[in-house]
Design the sequence.
């Protein structure tokens, strides 16, 4: 099942970098909304070493058709070598909210 709408999760090393990318996505109509959650603690293995980082999580609501353009925009200004950019389908939602996403995002 393909969903017309998605929530994209991205992590950033600083609040400044998260704010910059979130604003760029909304201003360019690649996302209707970007929510910034902080701090989160990430534990992962990178290049063979276990790492622990305090990060900022951004949740962006958009249309599935815009995902590739959103990824390109995020990667262009993201400080990480391999940024987390994952999409989860929005399977159901308030019809008014989903219509608002549709109106705010340009494809």
Sequence:
């Amino acid at each position: 099942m393909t969903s017309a709408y998605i929530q994209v999760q991205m992590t950033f090393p600083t609040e400044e970098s998260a704010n910059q990318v979130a604003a760029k996505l909304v201003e360019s109509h690649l996302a209707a909304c970007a929510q910034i959650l902080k701090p989160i603690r990430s534990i992962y293995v990178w290049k063979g070493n276990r790492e622990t980082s305090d990060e900022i999580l951004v949740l962006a609501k958009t249309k599935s058709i815009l995902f590739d353009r959103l990824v390109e925009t995020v990667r262009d200004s993201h400080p990480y070598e391999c940024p987390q950019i994952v999409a989860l389908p929005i399977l159901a939602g308030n019809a008014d909210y989903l219509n608002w996403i549709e109106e705010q995002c340009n494809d």
